[in-house]
Amino acid sequence: MKQSDITYHDVPRETFLYVDELIDQNKEQLNTYLDRLLWWNKRINLVSRDVPRETIFEHIRHSLLIHRLPAYQNSSLIVDTGTGGGLPGMPLAITSPEKEFILNDIVTKKVMAVKQMARTLGLKNASAVDFSIEKATINREFLMVTKHAFKINDLVQMTSGLPWQNIIFYKGMNFADEISGPSEEFSVNAYDLYKESRESFYKNKALVVISRS
Ligand SMILES: C[S@@+](CC[C@H](N)C(=O)[O-])C[C@H]1O[C@@H](n2cnc3c(N)ncnc32)[C@H](O)[C@@H]1O
Q1: What superfamily in CATH does domain 10-147+156-170 come from?
Q2: Is the ipTM value over 0.85, yes or no?
Q3: Model confidence at 161, in pLDDT bands (50, 70, 90)?
Q4: Best probe residue, ligand 1, of 63, 78, 83 (max atoms within 8 Å of C-beta)
């Protein structure tokens, strides 16, 4: 992967409208998740303390913005590593009942909270596991997603023996510094979340898809 291999795209306004509709269709469960996340956050640190409900809601909306990427649409198994309080895995599991999700974090109490939340929500398609992603064993092809948890090169190296086809990183636009090494094996596509949306929350935010050739 070289910085010169990156192809840049804009996320169209329609994607945001699509996600807003998805939120509307799933608002009861997404609100229950938000309530439970705030409840757990008072007890164990899952997202920053004193973060307003509206900001967490924006993180949920952010999580859902991968819905229209082919790498997401074509995957039936999704592993969210460094999930913390369940972002992005939990909103994705709520809105994609046909897909299977494994939520992973190295911190046992966070995984316990995520398991409780999934139980409260009655989610049948989400499980949670507490170990370092380096220790994972997965035997079928999957998509890995991760939000604000790993540097790109680090996670690619840590999981080089796993059968992922794509990794979607939720990143800042300055992610290119995290990419180096041999280029032949991977392609890199970056999606700017701000250029078309003009929403201040998404300023300098990107979705970065690393694909195995
Ligand atoms: C900044 S938090 C992000 C949480 C969540 N993705 C979000 O956007 O709110 C990073 C998370 O990565 C987890 N983490 C760090 N190293 C890890 C590893 N090797 N394997 C699994 N999880 C890890 C941490 O415990 C932490 O919960």
Answers
A1: Vaccinia Virus protein VP39 (3.40.50.150)
A2: yes
A3: very high
A4: 83
